[in-house]
Amino acid sequence: MWPSWKGVVINMLKRTPLYEEHLRRRARMVDFGGWDMPLQYTSIIEEHLATRERAGLFDVSHMGEIVVRGKAAKAALNRIVTNDLNLIRQYKVIYTLMLNKNGGVVDDLLVYMIDDDEFLLVVNASNTDKDYEWLKGNVAAFSADIEVNNRSADYGLLAVQGPSAQAILQKLAEFEVSGIKPFTFEFATLCGTEAIVSRTGYTGEDGFEIYCDSQHAEAIWNGLFAAGKEEGLQPAGLGARDTLRFESALPLYGHEVSDSISPIEAGLGFFVKLGKGDFLGKDVVEKQAVDGTGRRLAGIELLDRGVPRAGYRVEKDGEDVGFVTSGMHSPTFKKGLAMALLSVNAVQLDNDVDVVIRDKRVKAKIVKLPFYRRRRE
């Protein structure tokens, strides 16, 4: 990570277009999947609560953007994603997953329909290169007339999230922001540059994600802070992004879904459209949907003090019944909560279980997911 040559230390971590802004705001920077990213600016809890109560601004420019273009692009993508792209139209966004032949998840992603022949795929940062190669191979097998381009380096990506997000963005926009409905987007001009503005996010709150040319990310970042001063807009790092998505039970790749955890096991069956025709991995997940699986994702609330972490064992009556996929002390509920992949026999609401924390069994119970749902007007 930090190789040296003749006594000179070289930082090999990738940097987003907003790296200098993070340093200026005294962010605590960490290595996140090979990226030098802000973990927090003040504290994770403060940034978490600011986003829940007012608004937080996140730099998520490390995410991957892959463009798939061609007359057969929709048909090809529909053969390798679980959701049905025929359900969306221009300027719509859809959440979906790509599976391997064993029904495990290659990645979960958002698909933006630019038009009938062009799609923007937003993938997890750590999977970008893998997804790009995987898409090229599978799309090429469908048609040689489809282009797959990794455009990640060209994009800056900002997310303004929270109850005040719309009011803040409206101050910068020359269009009616309320017209962008959840999981839709528009091309718009912000701070003198063209951007894609979508009503999406990864926090469980209302909000927007803004895709722009990487050269103009700083102008939009600073413009949003100026617009959000009165609303108490606060910069927020990856720490708060994780606690926010966790409370809303949004999956994290490598935790709730992975190449060995199927979407059916993860409770994401809604995003698997078995009636649309063949897609990679369909035979496995279809069998799971019909016959059931031996394990499924559940919520856990600790009844005693402790902090559940990913990988901790979960026991029922002394028997191992699964493991924690994500867990933490919840900033909103101020108690230990976890998502866990458990034996289906153990997944009953209010069922007593134990989470093994440093060889100590901590009493807990099964609870409903998500832990948090935002109040809607």
- State the name of the first-level CATH class of the largest domain: Alpha Beta
> What assembly state would you assign to the polypeptide chains in this entry?
single chain
The CATH topology name of the largest domain reads: Gyrase A, domain 2
Q: What proportion of the residues is helical, as a percent range?
A: 10-25%
Q: Which sequence of strands runs across the widest sheet?
A: 12-13-14-11-5-15
CATH architecture of the largest domain: 2-Layer Sandwich
Concise summary:
With 377 residues, the protein is an alpha+beta fold.
Question: How would you describe this structure to a colleague?
Answer:
Helix 2 crosses helix 7. The chain is globular, with a radius of gyration of 21 Å. The chain has three domains: 135 residues, Probable tRNA modification gtpase trme, domain 1 (Gyrase A, domain 2), CATH 3.30.1360.120; 87 residues, 2-Layer Sandwich (Alpha-Beta Plaits), CATH 3.30.70.1400; 73 residues, Elongation Factor Tu (Ef-tu), domain 3. A six-stranded mixed sheet has the order 12-13-14-11-5-15. A six-stranded antiparallel β-barrel has the order 16-19-18-17-20-21. With 377 residues, the chain is an alpha+beta fold.
Search tags:
single chain, 377 residues, alpha+beta, Gyrase A, domain 2, Alpha-Beta Plaits, 3 domains, six-stranded mixed β-sheet, 8 helices
Write the layout of secondary structure elements.
Elements: E1 4-5, E2 8-9, H1 19-24, E3 28-32, E4 35-40, H2 44-53, E5 56-59, E6 64-69, H3 73-78, E7 93-99, E8 105-115, E9 118-123, H4 128-142, E10 147-150, E11 155-161, H5 165-172, E12 185-190, E13 193-198, E14 207-213, H6 217-227, E15 234-235, H7 238-247, H8 282-291, E16 295-302, E17 313-316, E18 319-329, E19 336-343, E20 352-357, E21 360-367
Parallel strand pairs: 5-15
Antiparallel strand pairs: 1-2, 3-4, 5-11, 6-9, 6-10, 7-8, 8-9, 11-14, 12-13, 13-14, 16-19, 16-21, 17-18, 17-20, 18-19, 20-21
Helix pairs in contact: 2-7
